[in-house]
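Final report, closing paragraph on structural work. Over the funding period we assembled a curated collection of sequence-structure pairs, and we close with a single example.
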Amino acid sequence: MGKATYDVVRGFDMEYPYSTYINYVFSKSSTGSDEYATFIDEDIKTFIQDLKQQPGKDIWFVGGGNLASEFFKENLIDEFQLAIAPIVLGKGISLYIGDDITQKYTLTKVEKLGQLAMLHYVRK
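Its predicted structure, as stored:
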């Protein structure tokens, strides 16, 4: 995830929700690691390609527009989920920022989680 998203999640009045996963946070301002994450300041595409060579299953990206746009630009997203909450925000973290990149995905699942609508898309 990106550092802005990490800071928002850490600010929630709840237990850290991703503590059962290995967490990497892309950051230009933080280095090393803390109790939950290792901070990364390297090329995203190279880091993800190296990570894919390690044992494990899926890589789960959590974040907003700045980092998402880099992942989309480098064609690193095979599938994604959008959580739609019943709150209209006048500002916040955008889903996508940056270049005009067109990629095609197919909606494969819609799920209701409390007041959230979860939309699951897979690359065509």
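Residues 3-11 form the longest helix (9 residues). Helices lie at 3-11, 44-52, 65-73. We thank the funder for supporting this effort.
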